[in-house]
Amino acid sequence: MPDWLLSRPAIIALAVAGGACSLLVSWCQSGARLSPRQLGWLSRASYGFMAASIVLFIIAGFFGTER
Asked: Is 24 among the domain residues?
């Protein structure tokens, strides 16, 4: 696994991207800006970004990388 993927900025960027996607889903739902199918995909993407961030955070903790 590349070292940059376990770096603190990469993990934080994934978490922020997940949060931004989640906010976008809420905003688009309130104004009916996207179809339900598109909202579903965007919601899954937000959970994917957040899950990747959590998993990488745990892996970085096990390997003891400080970046």
From this structure: yes
Q: Which domain holds residue 21?
A: 10-63
Tens digits of per-residue pLDDT, 1-24?
778 888 899 999 999 999 999 999
Token pair in block for residue 35: 């179809």
Residue 2 lies in a domain: no
Do residues 57 and 28 touch, judged by C-beta distance below 8 A? no
Tokens of 33: 């800006």
Residue 18 CA: distances (Å) to CA of 4, 14, 21, 22 = 19, 6, 5, 6
> Tens digit of pLDDT for each residue in 22-55?
999 999 988 888 888 999 999 999 999 999 999 9
Distance CA 65, CA 34 (A): 40
